[in-house]
Amino acid sequence: MKLAGVGVGLTALTAAVAWVVWGPGAVFAAGSFGLLATGLQLVAVALVRPALGGSFAALVRRWGMGMGLRLLGVVLFAALVALERELFPPLPSALGYVGVVVPLLFLETRLLK
After folding, report:
1. I need a surface site. Which of 28, 68, 75, 111 has the fewest CB within 10 A?
2. pTM of the predicted model as reported, rounded to 2 decimal places
3. Angle CA(72)–CA(50)–CA(67) in degrees, nearest 5?
4. Distance between CA atoms of 59 and 76, rounded to whole angstroms?
């Protein structure tokens, strides 16, 4: 699947940037949140795809469920950064999540034509 490959590539890129900027300890945080963003995005696309040919209400419902999943990722980010700051420093973790989920959101619009 194209989306998964791009997500893994973006995760590797954000992890490499985190390593250069913050050192090797930041790679786990950026990589973990990049993979989380990729997984959530894949599930969100799988939710909305079946509703593309159906009613507008079904499409909006499934789109909202996907957005809720992405919001769950933000909640997980906040919780893990607050509870395990040594393992998940804020900036590398945010780079991993936002640096993957935002480009995948733009790619999703092209894939769901």
Report:
1. 75
2. 0.92
3. 20
4. 26
Gyration radius from the chain CA atoms: 15
pLDDT (tens digit per residue) in 87-110: 999 999 999 999 999 999 999 888
Residue type at 92?
P
Task: Concatenate the DSSP letters of all residues of 9-47 into one string.
Answer: HHHHHHHHHHHHHH-GGGHHHHHHHHHHHHHHHHHHHHH
Who's near 100: CB < 8 A, 6+ residues apart?
Answer: 7, 10, 11, 14, 33, 34, 37, 38, 41
Instruction: Residue 13: name the closest of 111, 102, 112 by CA.
Output: 102
Mean pLDDT of the chain: 94
The position carrying tokens 């998964």 is 4
